[in-house]
């Protein structure tokens, strides 16, 4: 069937014309691949299957920077000016929180424990803030009968520094525990189904207050010398690494990814912060060669202003640091809205930014109602730039709103990444790469391998190698040692993957591994995982282009294997998607490597490599995968305005001696 597709391709057929011809690929009589990859001593992480940590982020070391308290703010001049203007501390408190009274905190016997102390409590050695006081939360809760912000005892037991586990947003330097309408939302551990935190559900009021706070301190922050901004970012980086075990525990609890993957994300996220600290001091304009003698021309690079950052749940840290670090480095101030599914990592990051000396109001954190917060950010005239990572559907909506206000926007959206395995590929390397990429974060990564196209001559050997690796993986609660594949984030995600697998099987796909929910007894984590959203890593053979997994981003642990017969067919199949984020291919042929890399319509290409993410390289997509780039030298440009200044020199001079120009030039 694919040979027919090849013939059609040669005669100029389009991808849609190919559809009927690729739906019934024949079996192959190829010899099996030469045995499965050598088994690691213990259960390998998915990334280890690919022989990489899943990111090429520069390894960073924990610095000697103390985590034992609040580091002196970046610029004394800034703080003095801010204090004089009443900007430092509590200008933008919300009314409820502003009236907070410090009350004794009785020991709680319940499973839920108030997490946050009153705002600005003095830090204790080791970074722990005093817990002996709290706001008027209990009174508010009693008065209204509403549940109050809280964290579970289980979550608190997972961290050393309980000061990282606040139950509040951050607005103008004030930790705000009560939403203006007193409503709350729950954070759920996807491995167990247990509620691990209850937080204030903020909406338009809080967003407006956060935007106002960010706007108030913008003049001071953008005037803070770049070296001082960089110093704050470096302290933030150091504190993140010093607290990486705690951040990983929070991340795994709220998004489910295995601890090893959480630590890899933290290393990558910290590397971004370090990178942009370096970029801050290298911001430079241009001096242009003027076309005439009587003028001079320069280009200034200036911060765009207040930035709204909206981030997804699948990378609760690195999607934040990729936006916030370049924005702060450029001299912008930020209102951050993390995913409501994973706000705890964001709260810990904001707490550490505060300890690093980031002045009040420069980074604000608004938690809760996505639509209300997003609407305020996109339609505010004060916010000059939106940085968004998430689904293409929400991204398009935000882009329409931003367009109406002629607001800058960068979008990191969905993907549908192809992997092409050519007949000359190193098949063992390819199999490891496919498994590592497709199952990273249980398949919930925007650059996950979603569609695997294999030359028919090596199809069976590659399939056998992939299945061999998948069968070794351990599924369960990501907090358990040795787990490679954690839960899906929600029941809806589980339903989508189930739908893709059922659809593929109904259309003739061969189930080579997995196919459904694993037996509870097989899951690492025991009985507690009964409420978790687990799906067994699944391999489908003889996949065809009429299947949902060809057209849609699965965002789950599914590896569909398609056949192709020629290079042209492979590239055409890969490009047959509205997405254009990442693509991977395996070959040893240098000429093919160049041709295919140039012809793939994707923003990022991995050649014989799937661990392509790095703070030094531009991250972003083509087509409906987004606009703009994060990371690298391109990432900071998204937060800078270009201003051209033309200086005419033909003005009349007050005295001949002070004449700078004129006809003498
Ligand atoms: N290209 C990339 O770099 C990249 C990285 C990670 C994830 N993603 C994509 O993100 C998607 C998964 O993330 P998700 O499910 O969290 O996406 P999502 O679009 O549902 O949510 C992303 C963020 O947008 C917020 N949001 C939701 N509705 C909103 C609205 N009406 N207005 C404003 N904000 C709103 C959410 O609360 C969250 O903070 C996948 O498609 C994945 O490919 C892309
Ligand atoms: O999901 C998107 C981020 C993936 C990555 O940083 O490698």
UniProtKB/TrEMBL annotation:
Record GO biological process: gamma-aminobutyric acid catabolic process
Domain Aldehyde dehydrogenase: 179-645
Pathway given in the UniProt record: Amino-acid degradation; 4-aminobutanoate degradation
PROSITE patterns documented for this protein: ALDEHYDE_DEHYDR_CYS (PS00070), ALDEHYDE_DEHYDR_GLU (PS00687)
Pfam families named among the record's database cross-references: Aldedh (PF00171)
Active site: 412
CDD domains given in the database record: ALDH_F5_SSADH_GabD
Enzyme Commission no: 1.2.1.24
Superkingdom to which the source organism belongs: Eukaryota
Catalytic activity as recorded in UniProt: succinate semialdehyde + NAD(+) + H2O = succinate + NADH + 2 H(+)
Keywords: Oxidoreductase, Signal
Family per similarity comment: Belongs to the aldehyde dehydrogenase family.
Protein name: Succinate-semialdehyde dehydrogenase, mitochondrial
Taxon lineage: Eukaryota, Viridiplantae, Chlorophyta, core chlorophytes, Chlorophyceae
